[in-house]
Design a protein that fits this description.
Layout lengths: L11 H11 L4 E5 L5 E5 H17 L7 E5 L4 H11 L4 E4 L6 H11 L3 E4 L4 H7 L8 E4 L15 E2 H6 L15 E6 L9 E5 H11 L12 E4 L11 H8 L2 E4 L6 H11 L3 E4 L1 H14 L8 E5 L5 H11 L2 E7 L6 E4 L11 H8 L10 E5 L14 E6 L22 E9 L5 E6 L4 E3 L2 E3 L1 H8 L5 E11 L3 E10 L8 H8 L11 E4 L13 H7 L8
Parallel strand pairs: 1-11, 3-4, 3-5, 4-8, 5-6, 6-7, 10-11, 10-12, 12-13, 13-14, 23-24
Antiparallel strand pairs: 1-2, 8-9, 14-15, 16-17, 17-18, 18-19, 20-21, 22-23
Length: 542
Amino acid sequence: MLGLMQDWPLLMHKVVDHAAIQHPGREIISRSVEGPFHRTNYHEVRHRALRVAQRLERDGIRLGDRVATLAWNTWRHVEAWYGITGIGAIYHTVNPRLFPDQIAWILNHAASRVLMLDLTFIPLIQQLAPKLEHIERFIILTDGAHLPETGLRNAVAYEDWLAEADGDFAWMSFDEKTAAGLCYTSGTTGDPKGVLYSHRSNILHALAANQVDCLGLGVADRVMPVVPMFHANGWSLPISAPMAGATLILPGAKLDGASVHEIITAAGVNFSAAVPTVWMMLLQHMEATGTRIDTLKRVVIGGSACPAAITKTYQEKYGVRVIHAWGMTEMSPVGTTYQRKPEILGLDPEAALALQAKQGCPPFTVEMKITDDAGKDLPWSGEVFGRLKVRGPAITRNYFRREDEAVLDADGFFDTGDVATIDTNGFMEVTDRSKDVIKSGGEWISSIALENAAVGYPGVAEAAVVAMHDPKWDERPLMILVMKPGAAAPDLAAMNAFLADKVAKWWLPDDLVVVDEIPHTATGKILKTKLREAFKDHRPKG
Ligand code: ADP
């Protein structure tokens, strides 16, 4: 027997409708790509999204078509997401930090028919345009006054294009399982893989993220996703913020410490989210200028492990609560967050900080387990490492246009490629990506644990640990450091003395080198493949 409740499909437009009806005047403040701050509200954004939908329809864009965006976080990008999905087309976010050839590959693989791009990316796209097989029209996210001569096929300024639609249009209705968004993983190994979100998965994920012990946005929050919308669905904030009726603040193209500080202060941001590098740059800026960020109350730090030193400084010096989060493109993306469970309250400050360095606990809708290589479940002891696997309604079951490749185990779990422990209170800790773990004499050493500890050494700006070949142990850790300007670098003995009470003795690095810069992936993670390549012949001296 079926229940007798209404069919109310979980569609993206319901979110912007709700925000516009319940919170019409709530602001969306952006740093525009043209320069000045721009202010609008949910009422206006909904109306403009309807015009986007109407205008795309007139251009012949239909259910299931891909409309790509190569854009920073601004109000135009947000209204584009809702407009595109409002006719059942699919927003396809493209990460501009990928190699140009990868960008062309992704746009061709997705067969996106339209590309909406910010002014910033015109030179890149001019270079790639001859290779883009499916793009019929380039829409530049600006007004006519700022549109340069581009030579791109059917190029038009977004505002001129939009002006041809009046918004007298009704959202289209379709099955909630219809595809809504497409985001490719960065493909540090092999071709990038397309993750295809549905309306239903986006809505369920945003509801889950809005649980109070997850990201928990509320109507009084002033939320700034520094994490770009092209990185893993913008961590769902362009959906969960309007769902909650929160004020949305969008940082545009400027993500350096000074610019992030400026917009936090100018717009009174109290909640923000970004990868650790952004928070490190902001700290360096504040330390160098003696400034503060007093409106900021909560920050989500994820995408890479957040070192305890950063958490401690934000919490103790700046009064900002750090929510360490883990997730991935394939998970929409939020998988776990630090949760203040009653079981763990009352820990001494050191132990509490160590617990916050773990990636945390899943919200309702995410199930997880750890297994050995044979797929056998491993205990939640906090000690045993295993492959971390997840399942839930906002987690990938297949990659786009690779539907014949099975990616789930027999019980429907997706292998995250991460290696983790889970403790008795359910806190998961990523010890490594499976390909980065250091296998020393058959035992595993966590490169992340070493990196996090090393960042606590005075003057260290960033640390990376990779395996170097060892004839006896097979692999041993090599530590690579970047120092803060003017700071003296430790030698191996000094670093190991510092690490001695933080990690097992046999984990201590066998060598240490100092470099000017550590390479990063397009999503801000340490590019271990490149480091391994650069140091493949490195052997400890003596
Ligand atoms: P990409 O692989 O394209 O850079 P993702 O954001 O999908 O983008 O990467 C997901 C991976 O990032 C996870 O599988 C995990 O290895 C890593 N990651 C994300 N958050 C954390 C975190 N808080 N701590 C450690 N690793 C993390």
